[in-house]
Design a protein that fits this description.
The protein is α/β, with parallel strands linked by helices. 32% of the residues lie in helices and 19% in strands. It has two domains: 214 residues, TIM Barrel (Alpha-Beta Barrel); 115 residues, NAD(P)-binding Rossmann-like Domain (Rossmann fold). The protein is built from 18 helices and 19 strands. The chain has a nine-stranded parallel sheet with strand order 7-6-5-4-3-2-1-8-9. The protein has a five-stranded mixed sheet with strand order 11-10-12-13-14, sandwiched between helices. Strand 4, helix 4 and strand 5 form a beta-alpha-beta unit. Helix 10 crosses helix 18, helix 13 crosses helix 14 and helix 13 packs across helix 18. The chain is elongated and about 85 Å long. It starts with 14 loop residues before the first strand and ends in a 5-residue tail after the last helix.
Length: 463
């Protein structure tokens, strides 16, 4: 294929926002408030009972018109292709800014007649396991912009897009190529850094149109449209991590420090898969959470548990720290001395025990594998209680080991909760009991602040 002249400007705003609201009135209000960096995607299949031309006119023609089949995540029946195309073309006389037409379809005369006043975006959604982007770019159909969408089965899959997107940008091709699913989220957020011309976003007041689609406010907060090729990737890795407060904590600090880093959730629960992804995505900084705090450092040849890794460049050796331990140590210095009842036997429990013993405190550790009795706990007379189990991650989770906690209550003066949800059953129990409580949120802030310092000082990225 002949080399194209580089495009002087991006022919589309970077953010394309799919209008997914329950009513057209809500969708219209959202579209009118988007701003110039975002273009509404009008999905005619979501508002199929309304005349397409009137929808386009209500938007002042500033929209991308799409009518998506069910097999591609839409609502239009696959067996009614003629009806779908007729419905799409009814929007054309109203003069939308862009029309989305599937990659392999011929351009209808009605659409060809209004070009180039109406831009043509060619799109394709491939099946899981298919990666034919290279081949498709060697034989581009007629169009001004192009979208290729696959599916991420592994976290490293997104790395395959990077050289292709960079090549497309160098050739002047306005391309967006990303992977759906939670493990493909990184490809949506890093689109500009990797060479993509635009990405899709969910409205802030409506549901995502596809798995892994991020809200517009999130993409803006992470400054995804302004990321460059040399900017470094950091993130929180584990499963689950989509709920993590990490991106909201670290990204503003990165921006305030003018460090060229971005921090994203990286969904992965297997150490082998995580090691593969670190190389494929050139990750520079990591917050490690369950279930990888022990397994991932070991897979990298480091001694854990560690919750923080960083390196200057992708080829450098990893450095590690346990900022969880640092945060707990700081908290202990302000709490009454004495023996501690530690609940939980996993990585957080191990970290907690090491910190407590280093501070000279005697520890009674209990878990499902290391049971105890109320009589033993009462005789131990703990002054402090540390909740290091996973109970509290879900709102319906109960208080862990309630009989042991009741036995500890006569001597207990303080409690530590590792789960950083707004509230947990253990946190509520401790407050009701009148104990001094170190919340999971307080521990998170302390350990995350220590992580941010290491990322900003120790990770690469342009300066």
């Amino acid at each position: 294929m002949a080399l194209r002249e580089p495009l002087p400007v991006n022919p589309l705003p970077f953010h394309l926002v799919t209008l997914t609201q329950a009513t057209w009135g809500e969708a219209l209000a959202c579209a009118r408030g988007l701003g110039q960096d975002a273009l509404p995607e009008l999905r005619l299949d979501l508002f199929s009972q309304v005349d397409p031309g009137s929808l386009v006119e209500a938007l002042g023609s500033r929209c991308l018109v799409t009518c998506r089949r069910r097999s591609e995540g839409g609502r239009w029946p696959d067996e009614d292709e003629a009806g779908r195309m007729a419905h799409l073309l009814r929007a054309v006389p109203a003069g939308p800014a862009w029309v989305d037409l599937e990659w392999d379809l011929a351009v209808p005369p009605e659409l060809q007649a209004v070009r180039p006043r109406v831009g043509l975006l060619r799109s394709v959604h491939v099946a899981s396991g298919v990666f034919d982007l290279d081949q498709r770019l060697r034989a581009l159909p007629d169009g001004e912009a192009f979208k290729w969408v696959g599916w991420a089965g592994r976290l490293a899959d997104s790395g395959r897009l990077r050289p292709i997107l960079a090549s497309a940008r160098a050739r002047g091709i306005a391309l967006s190529a990303f992977l759906m699913g939670p493990k493909g989220l990184v490809s949506r957020a890093m689109q500009a850094a990797w060479g993509g011309a635009f990405t899709y976003a969910a409205p802030d007041d409506g549901p995502a149109a596809a798995p892994g689609q991020l809200p517009l406010a999130t993409l803006r907060a992470w400054r995804c449209a302004h990321l460059r090729r040399e900017d470094g990737l950091c993130g929180v890795i584990g499963d689950p991590v989509l709920h993590s407060r990490g991106p909201a904590f670290h990204n503003p600090r990165f921006q305030q420090a003018s460090s060229h880093l971005v921090y994203l959730p990286l969904v992965c629960g297997e150490a082998e898969e995580a090691v593969e992804a670190l190389a494929a995505l050139d990750v520079l900084g990591l917050s490690i959470t369950a279930p990888l705090k022990l397994a991932l450092p070991q897979a990298l040849g480091l001694e854990g548990p560690l919750n923080t890794l960083w390196r200057r460049t992708p080829g450098d050796a990893w450095q590690g720290a346990n900022t969880d331990a640092e945060a707990l140590g700081q908290s202990l210095s302000h709490l009454a001395p004495g023996p501690v009842l530690l609940l939980g036997g996993g990585g957080v429990g191990r970290t907690s025990r090491e910190v407590l013993e280093a501070a000279g405190r005697s520890v009674l550790q209990v878990s499902r594998r290391m049971p105890s009795s109320p009589e033993v706990v009462a005789a131990f007379a703990p002054v402090g209680l540390v909740q290091a189990t996973s109970l509290g991650m879900s709102p319906e989770d109960p208080v862990p080991f309630p009989d042991l906690l009741e036995a500890a209550l006569p001597t207990a003066r303080w409690a530590v909760e590792w789960i950083y949800k707004e509230d947990t059953a253990f946190g509520a129990w401790a407050r009701h009991a009148g104990l001094e409580l170190v919340s999971g949120a307080a521990l998170f802030d302390a350990q995350a602040e220590a992580q941010s310092r290491r990322f900003i000082q120790g990770c690469g990225g342009a300066t």
